[in-house]
Amino acid sequence: MNRILVGIPTLNEAKNVEPMINRLLKVPLPMDLIFVDDQSDDGTSETLDRLALIHRGLTVLHRPRGGGIGSAHLEIIRYAYEHNYETLVTMDCDFSHQPEDIPRLFAVSEPCPLVVGSRFLNTESLSDWNISRKFLTHFGHWLTRNLLQLPMDATGAFRLYRLGMIPRDVWGQVTSSGYAFFFESLVTLKRVGILCSEISIHLPKRVYGESKLNFIQALRSLMVLTRLYLYPQMSNTSKNNAEGWDEYWKAGKSNGRNWYAILASFYRQAFIVSRLERLLCRHFQRGDHLYHVGCGGGEVDARAVRFFNIVGVDISPEARRLYSRNHPTTKVREGNILDAPLFPPLVGIYSLGLVEHFSHQDIVKVLQNMRRSLHPEGKAIIFWPYRNAPSVYFLRLASWIRGWLGIHEPLHPPEPSLLKSRAEAQRLVAQAGWEILEYDFSPRDLWIQAAIVLRPAGPHVI
């Protein structure tokens, strides 16, 4: 049987969720439902939890506020793959998308990996909307059609994905957490040859609430669209896996990126080595055994290996080769902290430049596995780059210049979760069972990374 999942992000949809679920349950298809709620403060979360106790096929995921609608869709997609659904349908909760249209997504003439509900196939699709909303919607469609060469409705959420026909690792190339997710995902799928069909849908007036798209989010979407237009081949083509990290650690051998490898090496040695040493010496005893996950080439451990017994861990063979060359007497091994904890448990674990490459959901998994890799009273140290760090703007400018010169090789794997604030870090580490013992964001490394020391917040998880 074709297992179908319907995924819906919510933010303050208390008046909509129950009637939406009631109508979805009447659709004559065997569907499970998942709602991803971003800490609604109008009772949406409580309503969903109550309904989940009643309806067996309803799952609710709760996230901190501010994750973004794009990251919510990525979490729904990840959940669908992990739970072996063959088909995923995504839609909004404000009844701009009609549950009764879902069977029509399945009724395209030939099975297609992707089917999109389009507002532009029928001139009457937006007849109930006011002039300003019509203008903005048609203008967005004009931009994606003419600049990104996406003929379909590229900014809508009403979609059907046949997951068995779409490689899962493709989604690792999509990094937009906001509304730009919708067109960036279509650009990414188009680039790997995924075909798309459309059905016409009619969008009535919004039943309750108002659009969550504000000026800042619209501006960010425009920036992503501009980047995709200017550099169509370079956008997020580097992968967050062993292959992608091998390419990163081979930057010194690439004529197009050797300057980046030199600057990165200088920064590590000039700013990170001493900062890491001070933190480790303050929170651990000389001779303690520590894991360094995502150890890379080991330049940042230049002083730490003198005082501690470090075990380097990395998924990249090239990184492990460099680490062994730089520290021939230090242990280094293959491992992926996202997939499983490390064994045996040690007294400490640390990472630099790791968590920003994962979604918020995966960051929680990484931190949970870090905790399971430690003794009950162990500590963790993470260096988390800031979203508005000077280095971010410098690399954006460098990427723009490289694109202008016709160089489209990415400098590093995607960074979808650059840190926004201490409050964001606090929410995520708390979900993983940690509490912040020390938080330092200062000119010590040119305001680029927050150094965060964590300790278990409760009973140790086995």
Descriptive account of the structure:
It is a single chain. By secondary structure, the chain is α/β, with parallel strands linked by helices. It is built from 14 helices and 14 strands. The chain has two domains: 4-230, Spore Coat Polysaccharide Biosynthesis Protein SpsA, Chain A (Alpha-Beta Complex), CATH 3.90.550; 242-456, 3-Layer(aba) Sandwich (Rossmann fold), CATH 3.40.50. Helices cover 37% and strands 19% of the residues. The strands form two sheets. A seven-stranded mixed beta sheet has the order 3-2-1-4-6-5-7, with helices on both faces. The protein has a seven-stranded mixed beta sheet with strand order 10-9-8-11-12-14-13, with helices on both faces. A hairpin with an 8-residue loop joins strand 13 (434-440) and strand 14. Helix 6 (181-191) packs parallel to helix 7 (215-230) and helix 8 crosses helix 11. It is globular. It starts with a strand and ends in a 6-residue tail after the last strand. The model has no long low-confidence stretch (mean pLDDT 87).
